[in-house]
Design brief:
225 residues; alpha/beta; Rossmann fold; 7 helices
Length: 225
């Protein structure tokens, strides 16, 4: 999970403080993470980037697939979180970096995922992060965003009221703030293709967007910026 950049949205001043217990809530993310990966359908020959990779929830699910991508990079701002990523397949790696300044060249990635990250970023920081996603994706590349959502049905009103109360009494709202990522994606130049609501675990929305294809070729993964 990426570190937020203002006091209102940051869950803690140091993600290292929550790293030891972070995996306890991963079962609540699991179904939505699987839906995210299923919607992106990364192929074995593609290069995939996972932003705010945390302790590796997306990477673990990817590694369990029969034909995972050959090259995957997980990026997170917290070294303590990255230390808890389990052993990865050959060709996969993680690195400490900020989601607003990715250490990758333009157009070097086929698929980008960002799971339960954008909602903890302040608006300007979130837009910078989405802009970086657009920059590193090749034309025609796919981006998948997973964010919390309000539940549907009878629980919607009490859930929303609880969030509103938390925002009044807590700087962080416990990381449960709800956003719609489509505006930021479209503002960065993405074409939003589809969305899906996930009921199991954290109520969430998966959004898949594509960088419009200009016909440019993908550049080398290791080319410096």
């Amino acid at each position: 999970m990426a570190r937020a950049c203002d006091n209102r949205t940051e869950l803690t001043s140091d993600w290292g403080a929550v790293a030891p217990a972070y995996d306890l809530q991963l079962p609540l993310e699991r179904v939505a993470v699987r839906r995210l990966i299923g919607a992106l359908t990364p192929e074995p020959g593609e290069r995939m980037l996972d932003l705010g990779t945390g302790t590796g929830a997306v990477l673990r699910e990817l590694a369990s697939r029969t034909h995972p991508p050959r090259e995957v990079l997980g990026v997170d701002s917290s070294a303590a979180m990255l230390q808890r990523v389990p052993r990865l397949p050959d060709g996969w790696r993680v690195t400490e970096a900020d989601v607003t300044d990715l250490p990758l060249p333009d157009g070097s990635v086929d698929v980008v995922s960002v799971s339960y990250v954008l909602h903890v970023l302040a608006g300007p920081t979130r837009r910078l992060a989405v802009g970086e996603m657009f920059r590193v994706l090749r034309p025609g590349g796919r981006a998948g965003v997973l964010v919390p959502a309000l539940p549907r049905g009878a629980l919607r009103r009490p859930y929303a009221a609880g969030l509103e109360w938390l925002l009044r009494v807590s700087e962080s709202a416990l990381g449960l703030s709800v956003i719609d990522a489509t505006g930021d994606l479209q503002g960065a130049g993405f074409h939003v293709e589809r969305q899906a609501f996930v009921r199991t675990g954290y109520p969430s929305v998966v959004t898949v967007a594509v960088r419009p294809d200009s016909g440019s070729a993908r550049v080398a993964w290791t080319t410096p910026r």
